[in-house]
Amino acid sequence: MRMPAEWEPHEATWITWPQRRSDWPGKLTTIAWVYAEIVRKLVPGEIVRILVASRAVEISARRLLAKAGVEMGRVEFFRIPTDRGWNRDMGPIFVKGRREVRVARFRFDGWSKYPDWKRDDRVPVRAARAVGIPIRPVAHEGRSVVLEGGSIETNGDGALMTTEECLLDVAVQVRNPGFTRGDYEHILRKQLGARDVIWLGRGIAGDDTHGHVDDLCRFVDAHTVVLCRESNPQDANYAALEENRERLAGYRLSDGARLNVVDLPMPAPLHFGGQRLPASYANFYVGNAAVIVPTFNDPADRVALGCLAELFDRPVVGIHAVDLVLGLGTLHCLTQQQPARG
């Protein structure tokens, strides 16, 4: 079994309809329209499966999506209650063999930070059963394993990236107390088909997850990554991003190939209530019909979109994310791909 690359064919994309007002203070109505635009861009290429808390939420979502011009025949709703709704982290992580797709049943604990996570933790099982996909429990030395989808990035061909700040932390947000680098590498090889586990250092400033790789560095093909680069030496992100660039510069995959590292700019810092927000163009999502990229009303928007347009074989589309990032995540954080079966 392996975890396919995001650009491989999908059967569907999973999202959770926004409902938690405290994630987007005063902006929940605006955020619903952002979600509608996301769905509108994805449905030409695949089904979009939406988790909703209730019949009333479903009715409201259907009305808004129809107003936004979404092809509703490509949208499916599932009444599965959630706590927060960041599908990348709490949703099912799909793996694929020669003949079937399964869900690797990792656990979710609210990023080892928040107390409300028990409904989110049940989502992978409930979603898998809803669409008839087998579930593969994940354990290591008799313990269940906490792993969020945003903490890993794969090329689908044996290479996987993560960060030491997230998985090896022993003091701030400790997902699996006592797990070592070797433990994680064993789990990632066995469960996700990773031959090469590439360890980056720290993530970006403002990241509520304590170092998720999907705000930092992403595969765009089997041997190419885009890595965020900060041009201002005084910025909080400068040193960490340069150190990660040094790690990748000397890395060789097990097949002997070097990684091609392409610079992706960073937008100017965004703040809300005195807090740095994790605004990053690396939090894009690769759908079947389009690559959707967060934009921030920044001059670097155009540069980032142009960079990614040269690297992908499908349209690259910007989605306004200044309001979305108030929730401390954007497009990749709220989506989860389900690979095509067969």
Order of helices and strands: EHEHEHEEHEEEEEHHEEEHEEEEEHEHE
Which strand order do you get reading across the main beta sheet? 3-2-1-20
Percent of residues in helices comes to 25-40%
Q: What's the overall average pLDDT, rounded?
A: 97
Question: Structural class of the helices, strands and pairings?
Answer: alpha/beta
Fraction in beta strands: 15-25%
Question: What does the secondary structure layout of this molecule look like, with pairings?
Answer:
Layout: E1 10-16, H1 28-42, E2 47-52, H2 55-67, E3 75-79, H3 87-90, E4 93-96, E5 101-105, H4 118-130, E6 135-137, E7 139-140, E8 143-144, E9 153-154, E10 159-163, H5 164-167, H6 181-192, E11 196-200, E12 217-221, E13 224-229, H7 238-249, E14 260-265, E15 271-272, E16 275-276, E17 285-286, E18 291-295, H8 300-309, E19 316-320, H9 331-334, E20 336-339
Parallel strand pairs: 1-2, 2-3, 5-6, 10-11, 13-14, 18-19
Antiparallel strand pairs: 1-20, 4-5, 7-8, 9-10, 12-13, 15-16, 17-18
